[in-house]
Amino acid sequence: MILSDKDIKKYIREGKITIKPEPDFEKQLGPCSLDLHLGNIFKTFKPSQYPYLDLKRDINFEKLMEEVKIEDGAPFILQSKEFVIAITKEEIILPNDIMARLDGRSSLGRLGMIVHSTAARFDPGWQGKAVMELGNLGIMPIILYAGMRVCALTFETLSGPCEVSYSEKKAQKYDKQESPQASKINQEFRPNCRTNSATDPSHC
Fold first, then answer.
1. pLDDT class of 117 with cuts at 50, 70, 90
2. What is residue 14's three-state secondary structure?
């Protein structure tokens, strides 16, 4: 069941869902979603000696990226056909019986901007700032501003509390993130987690 605006306010005020800093419901709350703001930290790919990204290669993808920090209200130019990793201003903490989904704003989508390439689900027990995979599909650069409303979260209740939350999983890679983190998918190909790792990373 997707939470309504009334239940979103109730769950946040009761502390069942934690959003930091505390949201301005008048500006951020929709009928069944809560808008989040663009943070101050971005990661972009640097020119690299590698001609491609080999997911089995034991390299640190963090070293292939450059971190960019800007001030509140400062501009960030998302070039045409560019891909960057960004983060929300808000930190989110979910209980063991609620998941969240992130969606881009329609007003940005109409400019050719995607807010998440694929990672839209936040599992029960998840804690941290939401990372977004920003892309500009258009032919013109788009100037974004730190602190602008950039995406929205919807919340869904589970049939019951999960047995193992995201923060309790041995294979979780991005818990309590405070800045955008590069992909860690190559961890799944290491020798100690080969068995069934393609379909079940929990073996890692």
1. confident
2. coil
Domain enclosing residue 15, as ranges: 5-47+54-189
133 is catalytic: yes
pLDDT tens sequence across 176-196:
666 666 555 556 666 554 433
pTM: 0.80
pLDDT of residue 196: 38
Total domains present in the chain = 1
Phi, psi of 107 (to 5 degrees): -65, -30
Query: 66, 133, 163, 168: which one is catalytic?
Result: 133
| Terminal Cα distance for the chain, rounded | 32
In a domain, 202, yes or no: no
CATH code (residue 18):
2.70.40.10
